[in-house]
Design brief:
9 helices; mainly alpha; flat; single chain
């Protein structure tokens, strides 16, 4: 154990530096998001107004609710905006130990991971969220008027975007697990049914039990899972074709 710690010691300073860069990036993007909190709030309210135009003003029941809500919203937006930079810092940390061809591969994977995350967040906001709100607000009636709390709605919207963005990382995580040697490239193909069940359950939970939203999340995730299987085979084949360091 001591030998392992001594072997990792030279990397501790680099890891600390990368973590500091990540924290600073999140703080800066969160601070910028807080400066535009009113615009972000209005943007987040658009799906609700489209789903239920009769909705009145938002409310908060504690003196600190509005302030804490804007802080949490800014942090969540900051993480979403800074996510590509966070992936870039991960790449900088692992890049010194990679071959040149592997570095090019990781750059490509990092780019696609960032695009997948942003696509997931956009899918949540523009596709899944409006349909979920339309379903939930369908229970409103002349005798049952919704009085939504500002904090609960805004954090729900931001968490949905973050959750969908992370969920869309499935192909990236599959390729990373295969490239790192943690799993065999055929593992995901052989375990397709259990993973499909897990995706369906996860989609159901993320969609808060709403069937339409569950399908809207599950179907793209099934397609992304199959894409990940193909990507695992492609990247593992490329790795097997790489020349040994001694013969390069």
């Amino acid at each position: 154990m001591i030998a392992i710690l001594e072997q990792f010691a030279p990397h501790q300073a680099e890891l600390r530096r990368r973590l500091i860069c990540c924290c600073v990036a999140i703080l800066l993007t969160s601070a910028a998001a807080y400066l535009f909190k009113d615009e972000i709030t209005a943007w987040c309210m658009r799906p609700l107004h489209l789903a239920y135009p009769q909705v009145g003003k938002m409310v908060y029941t504690k003196l600190t609710d509005a302030f804490l809500t804007y802080i949490k919203l800014s942090l969540l937006v900051g993480v979403i905006v800074a996510f590509p930079y966070l992936l870039y810092q991960v790449w900088l940390f692992v890049a010194p130990g990679l071959l040149e061809r592997e570095k090019r591969t990781v750059r490509t994977i990092t780019l696609w991971a960032s695009l997948l995350f942003l696509a997931g967040a956009a899918f949540a906001f523009f596709v899944a969220l409006p349909r979920m709100l339309h379903f939930f607000m369908g229970y409103a009636s002349p005798t049952l008027q919704p009085m939504l709390k500002l904090g609960l709605y805004l954090t729900f919207t931001a968490r949905m975007a973050l959750a969908f963005g992370i969920a869309f990382e499935i192909p990236f995580l599959m390729v990373m697990a295969t490239r790192a040697g943690l799993l065999n490239r055929d593992h995901f193909r052989q375990k397709r049914i259990p993973f499909y069940i897990a995706i369906a359950v996860l989609s159901f939970l993320l969609a808060s039990g709403e069937i339409t939203a569950t399908a809207l999340l599950a179907l793209p995730l099934f397609a992304l899972y199959e894409t990940g299987i193909v990507a695992c085979r492609i990247f593992s084949t490329q790795r097997n074709n790489l020349p040994d360091q001694g013969t390069a």
